[in-house]
Amino acid sequence: MGDLVLVRHGETEWSLTGRHTSRTDLPLTRHGEEQAKSLATLLSARTYALVLTSPLTRAIRTAELAGLSGAVPDPELHEWDYGGYEGITTPEIHRTRPDWDLWTDGVPPGPEGHTGESPAQVGRRADRVLSRVDAAFDRDSGDVVLVAHAHFLRVLTARRLGLPPTEGRLFQLATGAVSRLSTEHERPVIAEWNRTV
Questions:
Q1: Which member of 10, 61, 91, 182 lies 3.0 to 4.6 Å from 36 by CB, making a disulfide possible if both were Cys?
Q2: 192 catalytic per annotation
Q3: CA nearest 58: which of 38, 92, 29?
């Protein structure tokens, strides 16, 4: 079985300022494009059985600039739906909800089509992606790469390691970072985490 390579998209204006960004389709900043280009050196030595991206521009563009050809957008890889907290920073939320924590509380509904998600809902989506990853490993001997978003990839990592979705809180991810999940003695492990160039 190959490795599961996780790539967080490059910087956007909202990631730079800490604004929760799920379905708002923002482009990469100039720095985000440079981050994405620099990933090619970390990713080019591997053979990929499957390359999936979030359907959002920032992830698709990161994959392109990193030299990941044949990437397939997968709607299951979109970021945690932040509902009513889309575009708002955690300090702003804490002004009215001082004890709020994304990992335990989830988010309230927002405008139509943005219902918000709980950690459990994001975990179920991550499990569906992992099923697709495992099917690719069964068919091919290469690695699988996912280009997506910080909170979603953190939940997916927790689920891959057999942890509840809320434990994604333990795995910080920078923009333009590469991480690698592998196996040791047939158990999933973190082989590399949050690597940037």
A1: 10
A2: no
A3: 29
Which residue is catalytic, options 79, 86, 117, 167?
79
Q: Look-up: residue for tokens 């300022």? A: 17
For β-strands 178-184 and 4-8, DSSP reports them as antiparallel
d(CA 83, CA 74): 20
What's the pTM value of the predicted model, to 2 decimals? 0.97
Q: Which residue has the tokens 């988010």?
A: 107
Report the C-alpha gap between 122 and 11 in whole angstroms.
22
| pLDDT exceeds 90 at position 64 | yes
Tokens of 13: 């204006």
In whole angstroms, what is the distance from residue 31 CA to residue 84 CA? 28
Q: From the candidates 9, 20, 149, 151, give the one annotated as an active-site residue.
A: 9
| 3 state DSSP class of 48 | strand
- Kindly report, residue by residue over 131-185, the tens digit of the pLDDT: 999 999 988 889 999 999 999 999 999 999 999 999 999 999 999 999 999 999 9
